[in-house]
Amino acid sequence: MKNYNFLFIILLGITLANCGGAKKGENTLFTFDNSNFKEHYVSQDTIELGVLNPNSKEIDSIAYFVNDKNIGFIKGSEKLSFQLKDEKLGYQYLKARVYFDGENSEATARIELVSNVQPKSLKYTIVNTYPHDTASFTEGLEFYKDTLYESTGQNGASYLRKYDYKTGRVYKQVDLDSKYFGEGITILNGKIYQLTYQEKTGFIYNADTWKLEKTFAYDKDIEGWGMTNDGKYIYQTDKTEKIWRMDPETQKMIDYINVYSGNSKIKAINELEWINGKIYTNVWTKDAIAVVNPENGSVEGVLDMSGLRKLTKAKPDDSLNGIAYNPKTKTIFVTGKNWNKMFEIKVSE
Predict the structure, then answer these.
(1) Which residues fall within 8 angstroms of residue 244, CB to CB, at 6 or more apart?
(2) What is the pLDDT of residues 144-187, one digit of tens each?
(3) Are 229 and 248 in contact (CB under 8 A)?
């Protein structure tokens, strides 16, 4: 893979993922033949799967699995070719179930599928600057009917608010119980969805009346971070490299992608915004925004936002966080936790 040093530095201060390559299973009868396994694979690659048979057992057949999905059944001990084009980025867990002498035994291994996309360095221009409440520990930011909504964190200071972004005048606000640390929000089908941090609880409000319609428990054992939607599904983050896709009707997680830039997984992705078919995401503690392909998790673009911090009174720990796209103006609004300013920007290559 190419080494995108410049983008790595401004984007993410990335810690490289484990580069140990494939791991052998601990099976004593059979192991995967990893002599030709590569350190990293990309979606265009094909992998040759076969097993070593150190005890010279007479093999009847082998069933192969990738991520517990059966991908083929081979008579004897011939190798199986498998194309990786339909697999998620991230670790692929391989398993071979070997049948011999009326018995069977399994061998396991792991390979890593990474992105072969070179992220573009994007630029921005500031269109306007607006005031931002320095008491707002921003977690979620989204436009709905040309009005800006914001969700904030910190126990005892978390709220959901809609306001006039030009003046800061608050139209409506709901304060969360002090036991909750508010997180991301998104608005879909006339409902406001709001996450909490480690309480594994979400809220659904009527977007017109602000009446709390439902409190739901997380479907997975994860933290709540950022949220957005594509008009049909909700997407949310959990502090890892994952972006989950949720069914808004059931609040069940139905899929996920792993976010990669080159051969590095991007952890701690945070606030999300769906913009023209891509997911724009903050990366916690980084003054950068990554543009992610929602189909495969590849980072396709990077916005270095470090220049904005210099225009604010933000402290070093006041992270860039908050992305909202205004479809009326076709501009993006960005701010940070406890920042005194919010910026309206336009993005270009």
Answers:
(1) 220, 222, 235, 236, 237, 238, 253, 255, 256
(2) 999 999 999 999 999 999 999 999 999 999 999 999 999 999 99
(3) yes
Bridge partners, 279 (sequence order): 274, 292
Instruction: Give the end-to-end CA distance of the chain in Å, rounded to a whole number.
Output: 23
- C-alpha to C-alpha distance for 195 and 193, rounded to whole angstroms: 7
Which of 246, 291, 301 is closest to 269 using CA atoms? Answer: 291
What is the H or E stretch that residue 301 is in? Answer: strand 299-304
198 vs 141: CA distance, rounded Å: 20
Alpha-carbon dihedral 89, 93, 94, 100, rounded to 10 degrees: -160
Which string of DSSP letters, residue by residue, matches 96-128? EEEEETTEEEEEEEEEEE------EEEEEEEEE
273-312: per-residue pLDDT in tens? Answer: 999 999 999 999 999 999 999 999 999 999 999 999 999 9
Domains annotated on the chain, with CATH:
18-113 (2.60.40.10), 120-348 (2.120.10.30)
